[in-house]
Amino acid sequence: MSNLMTLGLQTAKYLMIVLMAIYTFQSFAVFKRSGAQAKDMVFLRQDVCIFMFQFLGYLVLFLKTMNAQLIISYAAQALYLAFTLLLFRNLYPKASRLLINNMCMLLTIGMIMITRLSSDWSVKQFWIICAGTVLALVIPVIIRKLSFLTKMTWAYVVAGIGLLLLVVVAAQVTNGAKLALTVGGFAFQPSEFVKIIFVFAVAGLLSDARGDLRKIILATGLAAVHVLILVISTDLGSALIFFVTYLIMLYAATGNPFLVSAGLLAGAAAAVLAYFLFSHVRVRVSVWLDPFADYANTGYQISQALFAIAAGGWFGTGLCEGSPTAIPYVAQDCMFAAICEELGAVFAICLILVCLSCFIMFINIAMKLTNRYYRLVALGLGTTYAMQVFLTIGGTTKLIPLTGVTLPLVSYGGSSVLSTLIMFAIVQGLYMLRIDEEKEDEKERQDPRRIPGEGDPA
């Protein structure tokens, strides 16, 4: 019996990797499909992979722990997936099915790994995901119907800077940084939501700034204030996300490489200054250069993460067969290492590719929007998402210093998952706006009263 169960668990491990590989392949194959029916078949195959992957993950967890509560968790999450996929599809037939599927797949991976680490954490995360999904169902309507949102630039600026200043004043120091506020017993991280507000503020400041040096200087100054407050809070991961996002949006708005080069030089100078001003930064850099020099103390987290990645090899040890709990703050900072250890490097590479397909969709939507404001918003949100993925994976693998940034939709953290769900919902709204624009253009081209050649592309 023991040998049979071992065989079954090993089979399930490889099947999960195969399902992830098939899902990832479909995430890119869909870009080559032109017909609606062909695309629907791709999305259907992805849906099947999501549900089969979730079933196998919870089956393995149940067989390993014999915890009956996992059956309830599995059923609740399966209902959530079915509800989300069907509701989005019926409420918003114009929505991007690829983004919906990728969101559900990443959430499923995250919930399986969080459940493996702590069933209590998984329950909390699940309820936040449900609340965030309800909010995400409303946001596309808001984006499409409330056009005055594009005219609230200064409200976004005041709200963003105000929230960040509140963190500086009221937040407690955690691991050398001021990150979260506690309200009514619930802790939340304002910078996770300010990064969305920041994108809307910068889009408003730069959407009509081409050639207007005064507006560019104003936008740069206000962006610098956001970054400076984050540096004072020693929330350096968020500061880097804000900085890079602004530079990309600045280049898209102006097309001036000189401004971006000057920004990069200023950022490099600020990084050197931060190294000498903040001991927290010096520790992170020294740990990045040689984590084993102080293995028992400052280098322990990244060292354990590297050990976990090495132990997993290409195909992983299998769920509940590794030791991810040996990594401090594994569910928040080093979830990628836990995935590498128990699901393997092949699975981890597929995960990166799924995140990449999300970014490609963000940029694809941005490029096709004709409204400059919305184009900058889509680009800014895509850059924010990509930078967060890069920082958490790069930090965990020692490519860059560890910044303590979460892996969107996968890591444990209510503020992170909620803000990412909001981000995806905003992009869905912009995607539907793009389709609306295309239909309006098509109507204009077919209008018999239209003068031939008028409005045609040059």
Write up this protein:
The protein has 16 helices and 4 strands. The protein has helices spanning 2-29, 36-65, 69-91, 97-117, 119-145, 153-170, 190-206, 213-232, 236-254, 257-277, 279-289, 300-312, 335-343, 345-368, 372-396, 414-446; strands at 173-174, 177-178, 181-183, 186-188. The protein has a two-stranded antiparallel sheet with strand order 1-2. Strands 3-4 form a two-stranded antiparallel sheet. It is globular and about 75 Å long. The model is unreliable at 453-458 (pLDDT under 50).
Short précis:
The protein has 458 residues and is mostly helical.
Top keywords for this entry?
458 residues; mainly alpha; two-stranded antiparallel sheet; 16 helices; globular
**Uncertain segments of ≥5 residues (pLDDT<50)?**
453-458
**Total individual domains:** 2
User: What's the arrangement of strands in the largest beta sheet?
Assistant: 1-2
> From the helix content, strand content and strand pairing, which structural class follows?
mainly alpha
- What is the alpha-carbon Rg in Å? 23 Å
Contiguous helical run count: 16
The coarse silhouette is: globular
Distance between the termini: 72 Å
Mean pLDDT: 86
Secondary structure: helix percent: over 70%
Number of strands: 4
Biggest beta-sheet profile: 2 strands, antiparallel
